[in-house]
Amino acid sequence: MKILITGASGLLGNKIAQIALPKHIVYSGYNQHPAIHGTLIELDITNQAQVESAFKKIKPDAVIHSAALTNVDLCEQNPELAEQVNVEGTLNIVENSMKTGSFLLYVSTDYVFDGEKGDYQETDTPSPINVYGKTKLQGEKTVSESSLDHCIARTCVIYGAQPAAGKDNFALWVLNNLKNNKPMNIVTDQIISPTYNHNLAEMILEALERRLTGIYNLAGATYLDRYTFIKLLAEEFSLDESLITPCDSSAMTWAAKRPRNSTLNTEKASRILKNKPLNITNALRQLHRELDPRNKA
Ligand SMILES: NC(=O)c1ccc[n+]([C@@H]2O[C@H](COP(=O)([O-])OP(=O)(O)OC[C@H]3O[C@@H](n4cnc5c(N)ncnc54)[C@H](OP(=O)(O)O)[C@@H]3O)[C@@H](O)[C@H]2O)c1
Predict the structure, then answer these.
(1) Atom 30 of ligand 1: nearest residue by CA position
(2) Which pTM does this prediction carry?
(3) What is the end-to-end Cα distance of the chain in Å, rounded?
(4) In this structure, what is the dihedral angle of CA atoms 108, 172, 38, 107, given to the nearest 10 degrees?
(5) Which of 27, 30, 66, 93 should be mutated for ligand 1, with most atoms under 8 A from CB?
(6) Considering the domain boundaries, does residue 243 fall inside one?
(7) 157 to each of 26, 137, 147, 220, 225, how far by Cα in Å?
(8) Domain that holds residue 98
(9) Which atom of ligand 1 is least distant from the CA of 30?
């Protein structure tokens, strides 16, 4: 299958491109940071002419639309930019996927929910509380209201073994701090479904290969507050847990509000997919093995 990945330089897109090869022909769209795997293609999703020309050249069978403005506080501070990338950019991808008749998988987020309930199922009604969540939900609507064969994959706090798009992810940031004996305050009042990028990439590829349609929660199977997640990470890597201090999010000076409990119920994915959402113990073990292949635990 000929697959075009947008945001292939990112934490998720990079991993999808890596594992999709050599089974598929992979075109890796990037903007500011060149992608690593597959055939590289410069693709600013907000640039209509560039998107059109990429689709004309590639004629993809399937598109994984992973590119987004993911910095939640930046979205809040610059809603025009968030709208441009997450809404207009998605519209460009949808319109061109229609012209080439490509299957579209849109990567969405737990932040479409307000976090008052948690354990969100695919059928729950979204109600975002920040600009990032609102623009990602508008992106979902653009996809679902089109006549495209499509899948919407919602996920939550992604982590992985490699920096991507010029930055560390939450888990790598914590591991680096712990290795350098740097103390950290981590919030206890944000409950999430942490998601290992390798597991997520496998689930997304399977959904694509099977052309599953509709909404799927593709996330880690364990619900945890951020503090407990980081404690388990430190434990898995035998690092000094005393450097991690629990705190309340009221102590943070974030521009954007965060949902309190945005956990995603993954029963549907567990039932339907061969690649199941991993629980936290198995996911952290696999992350450890990826970072240090000598670790057989
Ligand atoms: N990370 C999370 O915890 C999380 C949680 C829930 C959902 N998601 C969703 O998962 C998807 C992947 O997230 P991620 O963590 O892999 O993101 P990321 O590491 O922050 O990377 C963002 C990607 O989007 C690309 N991008 C940004 N603006 C673009 C533009 N104008 N044109 C083309 N590409 C552009 C970046 O390209 P360059 O770097 O080359 O500029 C990069 O490849 C996103 O749709 C996000 O909304 C992420």
Answers:
(1) 44
(2) 0.98
(3) 35
(4) 0
(5) 66
(6) no
(7) 25, 17, 30, 9, 11
(8) 2-225+253-291
(9) 40
> Residue 152: CB within 6 Å of ligand 1?
no
Please tell me the distance from the alpha carbon of residue 23 to that of residue 245, in angstroms, as a whole number.
45
> Does some domain include residue 231?
no
Residue-wise pLDDT tens digits, 99-130: 999 999 999 999 999 999 999 999 999 999 99
> What b/e string do you get for 186-224 counting C-beta neighbours within 10 Å, with b at 16 or more?
bbeebbbbbbbbbbbbbbbbbbbeeebeebbbbbbbbbb
Residue 251: the pLDDT is: 87
271 within some domain: yes
> Rounded to an integer, what distance in angstroms lies between the CA atom of residue 178 and that of residue 160?
16
Ligand 1 midpoint to CA 238 (Å): 31
Q: For tokens 């441009």, what's the residue?
A: 84
Count of structural domains within the chain: 1
Tokens representing residue 47 in the block = 């640039």
Best residue for ligand 1 mutational test, from 4, 30, 70, 173 (most atoms within 8 Å of Cβ): 70
CATH of the domain at 197: 3.40.50.720
* Helix and strand element counts for the chain (H, E): 11, 13
In a domain, 234, yes or no: no
